[in-house]
Amino acid sequence: MDEMTQLAPYAAKADTSRGREYKEALPSQRSEYQRDRDRIVHCGAFRRLEYKTQVFVNHEGDMFRTRLTHTIEVAQIARSIARALKLNEDLTEAIALAHDLGHTPFGHAGQDALNACMREHGGFEHNFQSLRVITLLEQRYADFDGLNLTFETREGVLKHCNKERAKALGALGQRFINREQPGLEAQLANAADEIAYNNHDIDDGLRAGMISVEQLRTLPIFASYYDQVTDIYGTLAPRRIIHEVIRRMVNAQVNDLIATSKAKLKDAGVDSADAVRQYGAPLIGFSEEMGALNLELKRFLRDKLYCHYRVKRMTNKAAKVISGLYEAFIADPQLLPESAYGLAEDDNHRHHKNSTPRIVADYIAGMTDRFAIKEYARIFDPRELT
Ligand code: MG
């Protein structure tokens, strides 16, 4: 595809990319952003997303979202919107597929526990860890650590960053110091993440029996589509009604985001990807009305689902597994397998500068839910073979 003629002037173009950290020959059959996308799909951290928690721990049931299926939903929503806005679909997809690579096992509970463990050692943040995965921790290529992705993909993965970390990141961190925006494809992947999880968490929450249709009908956005669907198809099976309602909610949010973003882009008069970066505010966003509906939905999910006692019980156990592992490895780093040290001892690369706490955090963050549980048993349960 000829990006210059087919994409909007403010879309990212592979030809004008700020490039990769290590120079490489141009891909022969793909665009640079397609190559990024392909490298992400082939990396080990991507495969491990299959066994990492979104909200429900993997062993709670086979029907719930995992971080992998969540990631695929985000990529799919983001691509549709990118196409409608004539943005770079390949770059959008690459960012979406990489956005959760740095997540610990057990979702946010795992991150919070690891962050608390790392408080004295620079902390732990999943978004920053995603960047570590793609720039450092994946060891697949002869010539460099990480996946050597383009600047725009790395920029998109790093959604937020404190000033201290930003300073250490050079060009990639500069926008946090200058208070600039990321490219539109990054803004879009972020919005698609929100659309995906808000809606699939309703579906998973209902399936788990932790929230009810009656509770959801107190939410205007759910109630309006619920009434619409039951008016048209009164006798449908309950699960099918729910799917129809959620489908309509996703559509409404996607359409609102496209229309609002189109208007914002027109009003801002931006004519290049750099003009987008320098513009004082994000240009991908919902209307005020949809923003308010989404906020209510988020609050509902926080109060009724993420704080449900069954979720809390699981996250409480998860935090114990994470902090238990961390403390054991810090107390005696010789408990770490060689694979965790492998990164640290390779003098050709940069890992040997890592402190023991960071090596432990990288090792724990890379675990799947079930591996973390198994590892915990291997460390603490005398009956467990090591
Ligand atoms: Mg996500």
Briefly summarize what is shown.
With 386 residues, the chain is mainly alpha-helical. The chain has 20 helices and no strands.
Describe the structure in your own words.
The chain has 386 residues and is mainly alpha-helical. It folds into two domains: 3-302, Hypothetical protein af1432 (Orthogonal Bundle), CATH 1.10.3210.10; 311-380, no CATH class. Helices cover 62% and strands 0% of the residues. It has 20 helices and no strands. The protein has helices spanning 3-6, 32-41, 44-48, 67-84, 89-98, 107-117, 126-137, 151-157, 163-168, 174-178, 184-207, 213-216, 220-232, 238-268, 273-278, 288-306, 309-331, 338-345, 356-365, 369-380. Magnesium ion binds at residues 70, 74, 99-100, 193.
Structural features:
Hypothetical protein af1432; mainly alpha; single chain; binds magnesium ion; 386 residues; 2 domains
Q: Output the CATH topology of the largest domain.
A: Hypothetical protein af1432
Counting DSSP E segments of at least 2 residues, the number of strands comes to 0
CATH architecture verdict of the largest domain: Orthogonal Bundle
Q: What series of H and E elements makes up the topology? A: HHHHHHHHHHHHHHHHHHHH
Structural class: mainly alpha
Identify the overall geometry: globular
The ligands found in this model are: magnesium ion
Mean pLDDT: 93
Question: Beta-strand percentage?
Answer: under 5%
Largest sheet report = none
Instruction: From the alpha carbons, calculate the radius of gyration and give it in angstroms.
Output: 22 Å
**Helix content percent band:** 55-70%
Instruction: Write down the CATH class of the largest domain.
Output: Mainly Alpha
Low-pLDDT regions:
none
Distance between the termini: 53 Å
Task: Count up the domains.
Answer: 2
Oligomer classification: single chain
